[in-house]
Specification:
26% strand, 10 helices, homodimer, four-stranded mixed sheet, globular, 355 residues, five-stranded mixed beta barrel, alpha/beta
Chain lengths: 355, 355
């Protein structure tokens, strides 16, 4: 995969989720975690696309609180390539800011908008698909990657595939579908023409700006001061909290006629919860284990010991066990979604320092 | 309970067990742990008998490695009242040394030999029984406390009760019995004249020295240099490792005709494992919880968070969960005895710093 000097990676690293508590904290959200032993997910994401867009053509959009951590994880990233959001205003604002920023430097720039916290098993296949998607994007399209579903998952949005556009394996989009209920998900899977929306978008910066202008002129008027190459952090701090908060899906994808989908299988997971790590257990292992783990007579577990610590289990099955130096989580594996209740209880229980 | 100026407490604090891993470590064995939120078990033990034997008449026999920790826990204890064993040589040697030490200062001294890591619910009743036992001891007896059994426990030794000696609720001893199998334990319970051996002994220092001289002259010859009030740490370090290693039960109790038993119920437990803490759960609670514990939809658990840490559980039952800053244990409650396997695995697995 050769590098095209017009390709820019926009890595979306604003997430503040708590689905990996106690490992994830406000100051260390999921994208900063090393869940697989190969480095922080943000760094792995950046490395994965470096052959298409090297560090100087990578942007990271993140919260001000995480800016320094991003610098540490990505030492080759120019400091000005970190767009620090004073507060999260959803994906449309983040992408608009990134598109304005790239346009100043490269009016013909093609953006790859990528989540910072997803897993990809087959990196070579992924890079080939991204390069393909960029080529299609360069013809005046907004390209989204679609993952062929392998189970009736209710946790993802779906994209209904339309007609081939006769170029780069791309298809028109029949419809974007919200997270379905179980019955609907089963129908999608059976129908065969639905793919998971992986939240990865490819488009010319000028095109996305034009579409945003068309559908969200209010947002674009609000964000205009950030187009100034000499914009100060003070101005950003003033302007940003006033921006309309709307997702890029609602703002553009579900309205534009420019969007196409490129289906592709590359061993993708959004790694949505501790439970999801169970799918990543090592060959021949009946439990997922990371860190110094000692499991006696157990199976079906997700066992995670933070650096320098040990987790020992005796006779337990189908649990999530996570140790950090100041907190331990023990949860039935199939109830990992109830972690939200734990986090809510910590919030109300005067234990905010644990979040 | 009034203090008799001849009563000396000999607190046996040489234990090095690992049944409370990961909370217990070599440098912090069970007697140094605060399992109930009322202080280290050693300190609670010392406080419990302070009305009978104040600090200046308390001795703590412990390992050299723990000497400083003992001083910190018991700041009023004179430093010379800590007998530091260079290595453990079992209970007969420890008691012989303590008896020699007391005899130098108080030839008429009565010793209360007490484990440092047991639990007593009814402190007043306990103090009354100890005072009673000391009175009986002063008539030339070795008194042992016996706990009326409440279940066919196979983890304790038993004492068969003989005839009343018509004094202080004391009885002759029919026999000492090793830890029984389940069937035998059930028979003991049904028979009604067996009590648990709590390992608490009361006797004049001169009497126990005489009996040791009678039954274990070799040990007494070996230990003789330690009778010198000016004995140095160097001499102790030379002599101690050569001492015969034998329990006081084998050396004296099971051989002497001076022993009597005082049965008494005072809410005793030897707190032998994490599992045993389940019996100490708070009123109305279906799990034992210590420290900052957040339990969602769980029951039957023993949940322990070390100081400054949080344990959160979701949907789990009948587990032991223990968090310390560098290790977490998760174990089925009924398999807590398999903790030994964990500790053995840590020993062989180059993780000795966790022990």
């Amino acid at each position: 995969v050769s590098s095209n000097s017009n390709i820019w990676a926009v890595i979306m690293a604003g997430g503040v989720g708590s689905r990996f508590w106690p490992l994830s904290r406000r100051a260390r959200p999921k994208q900063m975690l090393d869940l697989f032993g190969d480095g922080a997910m943000l760094r792995v994401t950046a490395d994965r696309v470096a052959s298409l867009a090297p560090s100087e053509r990578q942007l990271v959009v993140t919260g001000t609180v995480l800016g320094d951590s991003v610098s540490e994880e990505l030492p080759n990233l120019p400091s000005e390539n970190i767009l620090r959001e004073p507060e999260g205003r959803n994906t449309a604002a983040a992408i608009a800011w990134a598109a304005l920023w790239v346009k100043q430097r490269d009016p013909n720039g093609i953006l790859m908008v990528l989540p910072s916290d997803h897993y990809v098993a087959n990196i070579e296949r992924y890079q080939t698909l991204c390069a393909e998607a960029c080529k299609v994007a360069a013809t005046g399209r907004i390209v989204t990657l679609g993952i062929p579903p392998t189970r009736p998952e209710t946790g993802y949005g779906y994209i209904q595939i339309g007609e081939s556009i006769g170029q780069g394996g791309a298809y028109t989009v029949g419809a974007f579908k919200e997270k379905p209920d179980a019955g609907t998900a089963t129908q999608y899977l059976a129908a065969g023409n639905f793919v998971w929306n992986a939240g990865m978008f490819f488009m010319p910066c000028e095109l996305i700006l034009a579409e945003l202008e068309r559908f969200e002129p209010e947002l674009m008027a609000q964000i205009a001061p950030l187009a100034d190459p000499a914009v100060t952090a003070e101005t950003v701090a003033e302007v940003y909290p006033t921006l309309k908060s709307i997702s890029i899906d609602y703002a553009v994808m579900e309205r534009t006629d420019k969007v196409v989908v490129v289906p592709g299988e590359f061993g993708w997971s959004d790694v949505g919860s501790w439970r999801s790590l169970y799918d990543f257990r090592d060959d021949g292992q009946s439990s997922f284990k990371r860190g110094d783990v000692l499991e006696l007579d157990g199976s079906g577990n997700v066992l995670f010991a933070d650096e320098g610590a040990t987790v020992a289990t005796v006779g337990v099955k189908d649990l999530v066990v996570v140790h950090t130096n100041d907190a331990t989580l023990v949860c039935k594996r199939d109830e990992a979604q109830r972690l939200r209740e734990v986090v809510d209880a910590l919030k109300t229980g005067d234990r905010g320092e644990l979040l």
